[in-house]
Sequence to fold (153 residues):
Amino acid sequence: MIWLIAIFIPVYWWREPARQEAAMARIKKEAVTRGAEIFVSHCVACHGKTGDNIPGRNLRQTLMEEAALAKVISRGRPGTGMPAFGAEEGGSLKKFEVTDVVAFIRNWDQSLFDAAAAHLPPKTAPSPAPTSPAPAAASKATATPATGGDAQK
Fold:
């Protein structure tokens, strides 16, 4: 029995670095995917589909350190249109979500962005306002008061 353990432990140790490397790659891919989804829902309106919609702020080519980038996302930039997204600053993103957005920006993958954007409901153009209410709708609107109609009697 001891000889089995003596063989198993070195074999396990020999394969451990490859297992850890595969796990780290999977974790990074998951973080970047989550970051793409958050970017689509929170950032694309201003930064655009490719991260370069704001002049002088190309996110795909940013030279900012990860910590500085996380700080800007969390705290925003006073005096600009960049709001604070971190929950500790009144925003809606938790620290791990900010970290995921940073992972996406630092490892930009347009295919992940496109996949995340495909999950959003399609945007439709607002319907034009009616020029005048239909006659039946107008008579019903005048017959039922805004305070609840017959239920209030």
Observations:
- The two ends are 88 Å apart (CA to CA).
- Residues 122-130, 137-153 have pLDDT under 50 and may be disordered.
- DSSP finds six helices and no strands in the chain.
- The helical segments are 2-42, 44-47, 66-75, 95-106, 110-118, 135-143.
